[in-house]
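Researcher: Here's my situation. A collaborator sent me these components and asked whether they could plausibly form a single complex. I don't have experimental data yet, so a predicted model of the whole assembly would be a useful starting point for our discussion.
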Amino acid sequence: MATIDVQGLTKDFGETRAIDNLEFQVREGEIFGYLGPNGAGKTTTLRTLLGFLNPTAGTATVLGADIRDEAALREAKADIGYLPGELSFDEGITGQTFLDYQAELKGDDRLEDMLDLFHPPLDRKIREYSSGNRQMLGIIQTFMHDPDLVIMDEPTGGLDPLMQERLNTFLREERAAGLTIVFSSHILAEVRRVCDRVGIIRHGELVALETLETLLEKGGKRVRIATEEPIKDGAFDLEGVIDEERVGEELHFTFAGNYNDLLDRLAEYTIIDLEVEEPPLEEVFMHFYGENDE
Amino acid sequence: MSDILKYEARRRIRGTMALVVLLGLFALLVIYIYPSVEAAAGSIEEWLQTLPSSFQESFAIDAYTTIEGFLASEVYQFVWLLLVGLYLVYMAGGIVAADVETGRIDLLLATPVSRTRVIVEKYLSLLVPIAILNLVMPLFVFGGVIAIGESLAFTDLLLLHVFSIPYLLLTASLGLVLSVVFNRADIAQRGGLALLFMLFVIDSVTTGTDFEWLGAISPTRYFSPIDVLVDAEPDIAGAVILLAAAFALLIASTERFKRADL
């Protein structure tokens, strides 16, 4: 049985449909990336899965519990770790007091392990925490009770690159140990680094459900080339080149083809500047998942 | 049924201590003034007779210049009924709404606890201010009365505090209802202040008039410090009504909270 099984899940806020007839499964032991631009419905999905919001239609099971069944879901929550996208604590207490309270509510079997990896100043009041420290405290509480399923809403926000990498490494190790992880993000690169499969949500609808390989193929890169001599028209007419445009002396395009072919062509020129970078998520949607209606 | 209560209760202690000291000092100040009121009893009573009848009721008109009447009017009628009532309605107004508004509720409800437990235990944490205020305040008042050489039936004073508990629970329940109805804490809290103050005023201004029936919607109608302290006649039926209403509102809030989108 799937760890999370989403069946026609729909949630309206008044007139607005936040998520629309979602269907997907998260398998045991995988890291599932839940990708979409801000406002697409990621947080609504995750908060509905945790029972904070009542579905308008459809349902889901999480660790076998129907999310509409409060008692069943409550029992399942003993084995779920959750990291909210917008972390909010009682500001007047220390990190230690917060963790003590959480320990009473759900246990702290893995607290020591977590404190070895992440060390916010526990004796200080949370009010004085930097955003990185708050995020670390959030991550500690997510894993402290040794959950079987972890749901993280934009987990790397506020973390410096070093801590981000530490979190990613930790997630990979946990996956190897059998943990199932749902990881939402609006940043493609972030999802690429750790996820096995990716669900892409846009305007409340699931527009794609891909393995990481497929996503990498489709995602492409933004390429910017500046050369000493002018680039001839059609010089970069390679397979996988889209949206070619000249910006002054530079050539810009999105590239989803074979890098060796690209390098062969580049070798014919004297390169002054070259950038190959992640395209913004919206651009990926536009190119690979159809319409851009904004 | 204890982790949440323990946590919430502990967080209420400090604020309650500050409040009780403040109110205690206020009571001492009022008591300190009493000898001069007693000395001017004749002219004060004459002046009170000129007030509209509804005011006279809230001032224990027949007994204002006795220590019991003076305390009931100046300390309990206003500080206890109004100020402490407002404090509780305000505190209760933040119970759910503040957690939902900030998103703090997510970290609590992500743990294996039921919504019923969350709201009931948070509500019960208001027993901390209710208990501490009712235990400490009579000591200030009684001590003050002794200090100025007056006497007061300590049992009547205790009775007054015991009978204030149903009233205070009801104000807490009122705040709780607003706290689950509104998702913004400041609306729930300020709305609670306005509502309780309005009810207090309605009861005060209609007393002794043709519109006295209107005051029946106010919780202040069912608990009179003056009746207890001056006449030693607590309103037992009123206390039962207040308790029942407090309980009913707690149930209603819980039901709503259980179904709410957070």
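Model: Some features of this prediction you could bring to your collaborator: The interface with chain A takes residues 3-4, 6-7, 11, 102-115, 258-259, 261-262 of chain B (CB under 8 Å). The mean pLDDT of chain B is 90.
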